[in-house]
Amino acid sequence: MAGTQRYLRYIMFALVCLILLFFISSSSTVPATPWQGVKPQDQDVEAGKVPPTTPNTQNGLGPATASGEHMNATFVTLARNSDIWEIARSIRQVEDRFNRKFHYDWVFLNDDEFNDEFKKVTTSLVSGKTKYGKIPTEHWSFPDFIDQDKAAQVREEMKEKKIIYGDSISYRHMCRYESGFFFRHPLMLDYEWYWRVEPSVELFCDIDYDTFKFMADNKKKYSFVLSLYEYVETIPTLWDAVKNFTAAHPEHVVEGNSMGFLSDDDGKTYNHCHFWSNFEIGNLNWLRSSAYIDYFTSLDHAGGFFYERWGDAPVHSIAAALMLKKEEIHFFNDIAYYHVPFTHCPTGEKTRLDLKCHCNPKDNFDWNGYSCTSRFFEVNGMTKPEGYEKEQ
């Protein structure tokens, strides 16, 4: 009896397998149905009728290319091989919210050689061309005029005071490099505009227009999304160095500048306001100008990158505020951005809804007491966005 039941189970199992095989073979002849209203693109791509797209550009997410003029611009990221998954997240954010429409290039810079994994992963994510450059040793080392014993003593003192990155040598090299050298790298010389992107950032809203073209059309040279006060302990003599520079080169200080953003007493002292430079869209020709090179060279020889801990954010900000006219600096309210620990979420419900934003307006830092964005609006005589009072 037991044997008969076992044979019956075998027979039933075989019948089930045959039925499954029949349905599988039948369904393989039925073409897959795309999402409603979307034409399958694979055959068109192979035939050259449409350009290849990055992941996520199908299924109704928008066109792969944008019409109109394409600017001579690139994204630029300073990263190490160990940053691979953090920068992959950032690239995905930028591509999904902006670059899948425009296909701009991406330049990666490192003080060491990039490994194959970093190149493979980033190339697979970027819709434009990817370029990988090694930073020259002379741009990532102590210059001859720096007293390294004095610099080491400063780092030890800052460590004891628990100043953020106060004891870090690599952080100082990074700040100096971003302040005076990234725009001079051979790979960057091919471009006129840049958008700086850091590892682990987030973009919360769609960007449906070419930001580089906007900057060019509106004669802008520098832009930001977040501003705040710098740590006083990291820049005790920075403003003295700036005043020494302006005294030696008054020709580089333009009329109609933004001194009011930097100082409450017409330049006698610095109020520590700066634009947060981990996000920047700017003009490379301005950074390569004799005015900016003279400025950086003067600050560099003052030694504050190593004897203190000058950040590239106040260095860039002071230069922009003094060497550019007010109207040449732009605040992108519509580019929603996060870099730990601060968030810029566009002010105005209509803006957030129109741009499909997913940020919480309660997290917006713009109108916080430690933000300098209100000052920027006041200096430029701009009306603050409707609803800003609710976010103070």
UniProtKB/TrEMBL annotation:
Which segments carry the region annotation Disordered? 35-67
User: Where does the source fall among the domains of life?
Assistant: Eukaryota
Matching entries from Pfam families are given as: Glyco_transf_15 (PF01793)
BP-aspect Gene Ontology terms: cell wall mannoprotein biosynthetic process; protein N-linked glycosylation; protein O-linked glycosylation
Q: Which InterPro entries match?
A: Glyco_trans_15, Nucleotide-diphossugar_trans
Where does the UniProt annotation place the signal sequence? 1-29
Please provide one cellular component term from the Gene Ontology annotations of this protein: Golgi apparatus
What's this protein's family per the entry?
Belongs to the glycosyltransferase 15 family.
> Which protein, by its recorded name, is this?
Glycosyltransferase family 15 protein
